[in-house]
Design goal:
The protein has 18 helices and eleven strands. It is of the alpha/beta class. The protein has two domains: 250 residues, NAD(P)-binding Rossmann-like Domain (Rossmann fold, 3-Layer(aba) Sandwich), CATH 3.40.50.720; 154 residues, N-(1-d-carboxylethyl)-l-norvaline Dehydrogenase, domain 2. The strands form three sheets. It has a five-stranded parallel beta sheet with strand order 5-2-1-6-7. A three-stranded mixed beta sheet has the order 4-3-9, with helices on both faces. The chain has a three-stranded mixed beta sheet with strand order 8-10-11, covered by helices on one side. Strand 3 and strand 4 form a beta hairpin. The longest helix is centred in the middle third of the chain and has 24 residues. The radius of gyration is 22 Å and the shape is globular. The protein starts with 24 loop residues before the first strand and ends in a 16-residue tail after the last helix. It binds D-mannonic acid (CS2). The site of D-mannonic acid has 9 residues, from helix 10 and helix 14.
Amino acid sequence: MRLSAQTPLPPSVQAPGYDRAAQAAGIVHIGIGAFHRAHQAVYTDDAMNAGDRDWGIIGVSLRSADVAAQLNPQNGLYTVSTRSAAGSELRVIGAVQKVLVAGDERQAVIDAIAAPTTHIVSLTVTEKGYLRRANGSLDLAAAVGNPSLYRFVAAGLAARKAAGLRGVTLLSCDNLADNGAVLRGLMRDYLAAYHPDLSAWFDSECTCPATMIDRIVPATTEADRAAVEATLGARDEGAVVTEGFSQWVVEDDFAGPRPRWEAVGVELVADVAPYETAKLRMLNGAHSALAYIGLGCGHEFVHQAIADPDIRPVIERLMREEAAPTIDAAPGQDLTAYAGNLLDRFANPALNHRLIQIAMDGSQKIPQRWLETLAWHQAREQRCPSLEAAIAAWATFLRSDHPIDDPLADKLREAAAGPDAMERLFGDGGLIASGWRPETSA
Ligand code: CS2
């Protein structure tokens, strides 16, 4: 039996406490992977449980039909399992109404963005989904040639303008430095090239708040689905597994209405930068270092790598002595405590977070995770032994037998193979744009 609106749930499993069928969709979310389902959708479900209304989510997958096949036969329902050493908790999330596959249902996606009830278009399309060139500008050919976020958002906005509707809030929930401003700039590039009639309307009607999003969400495995089925008594193909911790810091700059997320733990602030920078350079920076150093030492999971007495001090140093000093902390933001909490989260033995999952797309992640920190220290004539070890481990990874899942995979492998690897990766005109000049050879 598949999970659906008719499934009787065991008393231990929290269910949506609102009338799902009566909710309008207020959010269109592009890139409905496991991360969105374990993070923003949970906060939105919490807000509706707390009495907010009409914030149903229409999910969009740009390419793969997998999530639509998982969730649509389940009326959009799925479970979130939170796992810690103390045990596991299961809950059913009701915020997602349905999932559209953009390549097949183009008009339905545009109509969803253009619906009068829609106020927010949020995004988790991963770093590479923004289609940036090494210099940060939009790859216009890729953006118009693929089912890209830009094509759908622009068509939806054009329909809103034509119908005399207000604009929307475009909410990037990806791990990019200054994600709101990056999305705004790239969207402007796209409109200037392909919809110049919309540019001024976009600027005056739409906003792109910055966000810091944080929750560790390993890819769901068949064993996870079997464990959920054993508790639920029904099969959930859309199950997601995550940790108890969750954080969302959002710049309070919305074009129109938004859920009362602040009532359910979301921090709405004037300036996200200190939180976002700390998260990218400390959490994500440590994660990528754990991935490449850990894989090089034969580990499979994050909790194994952080328990390795040769690796843990490298990661602690990276966070405390290399990344933390580069961050201009907000009042009350305690980076020492943050580093300690991150070490505990990485050590969670109940989460089998694969290092190879974090290792993917290194070319898209390394600039904001490592290179900004390295450049900061280089400007002060200081070295970063941990980050330099991480860079060397990445080069070793690129030369190894591991599968390289990265949009630049072939070029990276070729660059890393030669004696001038560091120069070809990070030097002038190298594959990775960076303000950092390599001083080591890998
Ligand atoms: C990870 C992130 O896969 C990765 O690259 O570093 O997905 C990380 O788990 C999240 O950003 C945590 O919030």
